[in-house]
Amino acid sequence: MLAMNKFRILGIAVVTIAASIVTTSCNDKRSTGWEYAPNMYEKIAFDPDQKNPNFKDGKTAQLPPAGTTPVGFTRFDYPKTTEGYNQASIEVKSILFNTSKNIEDGKALFMTFCSPCHGKTGQGDGTVVAHGFPAPPSYSKGQSSRGGAMKDLTDGKIYHTITYGLNAMGSYASQLSPEERWKVVMYVHHLQTL
Ligand code: HEC
Questions:
Q1: In angstroms, what is the span from residue 94 Cα to ligand 1's centroid?
Q2: What does the pLDDT look like over 92-102, one tens digit per residue?
Q3: Total of domains in the chain
Q4: The CATH number of the domain where 129 resides is what?
Q5: Which of 39, 122, 142, 149 could cysteine-pair with 191, CB 3.0–4.6 Å?
Q6: Is the full-model pTM beyond 0.70?
């Protein structure tokens, strides 16, 4: 009886080891092994970077048709030129109401993204400037390098500057959504009066 049990245990052990070798060993090191529900690995949808026979240029990622606006995207059709800046100054107006919530949000964003250079009160004396970075002109007392007093900068000019940057100042288009940019513009208007 005991001998039988020994053989049975030995037998089970051998079968288990053999089975685990069969299921885990694989010559192809890149293989993921057995695929359960292969649709999760080999999906039917094309990845954006995949070749695609359904389009003439063979790519999956297609440009949107000319003249269309993606859902949730805010257009700003003013080029990164002085002409674009001046045109935006005439045509572009803030989309936000002058509420205390918007000003508060604008202030918080300004403190994070702009004050390191422009200073907390917009005088061009931020901490980065203290370390040798060229000082931006004061919003209330300075002159814009594109002409005119900084205190007279319009909605469109400030929005254009945040979107594209200017010389030593980079673009904030990828950090600030259009709505956030307008909140910052609102706060810059406040700093222009100091
Ligand atoms: C890395 C430092 C730096 C940061 C951060 C920065 N700026 Fe500037 N900014 C500058 C400098 C330098 C100038 C002057 C550029 C010139 O005239 O050559 C400038 C100029 C400007 C002007 C004047 C544009 C004009 O037409 O003359 C505005 C408005 C402005 N910045 C707004 C902002 C706002 C809003 C933010 C935050 C979203 C910001 N800046 C963040 C450095 C910075």
A1: 19
A2: 999 899 899 99
A3: 1
A4: 1.10.760.10
A5: 122
A6: yes
